[in-house]
Amino acid sequence: MDEEYVEAVLRLVEQVPPGRATTYGAIGDLVGSGPRLVGRVMSQFGDAVCWWRVVRADGSTPDFLAERAGARWQAEGTPVRARPGRSCAVDLVRCLHVPQVTD
DNA sequence: TACTTGACATTTT
DNA sequence: AAAAATGCCAAGT
Q1: Which of A1, A22, A45, A88 has its CA 20 to 30 A from that of A54?
Q2: Parallel, antiparallel, or unpaired for β A89-90 and A80-81?
Q3: What is the residue extent of each domain of chain A?
């Protein structure tokens, strides 16, 4: 495993301020790898960072974390838009935040 | 070594 | 609008 890559991802996630969120695709693009890699890293080290600030391209999280993520968003004041019949998703139009690659 | 799976995204049916 | 197909990279079986 490339620890450098992992650290880079975790760093970007840590750079996301409360009340905001970023997407796997954005991080993947910033680190120069596909979004799946970011997801994989999160599955292993996600608990080490604010994973709820990392959402899918549609602004939502996997169903596993939908509840917990929703609670976090509400606690942090992240703008979430209710999805009819589904879990809530953060309003990326409002809170999408792309961390800097200033390494 | 080959196939399947995964905290994803984008394009075409 | 919703579902399927394709691309992507790495790990597990």
Answers
A1: A1
A2: antiparallel
A3: 3-95
Residue nearest to nucleotide C7 (CA to C1'): A34
Give the single-character DSSP code of A32.
T
Task: Write the pLDDT tens digit of every residue in A21-49.
Answer: 999 999 999 998 999 999 999 999 999 99
Q: Specify whether the CB–CB gap between A48 and A10 falls below 8 A.
A: yes
Helix axes A3-14, A24-31, angle to 10 degrees: 130
Kindly indicate whether the domain formed by A3-95 is annotated with CATH number 1.10.10.10: yes
> Given its phi and psi angles, is residue A32 left (phi above 0), alpha (psi -120 to 50 degrees) or beta?
left
In strand C, the nucleotides that come within 7 Å of a protein beta carbon are 7-11
Q: What is the CA radius of gyration of chain A?
A: 13
pLDDT of residue A20: 96
- Judge whether A42 and A23 are in contact, CB under 8 Å: no
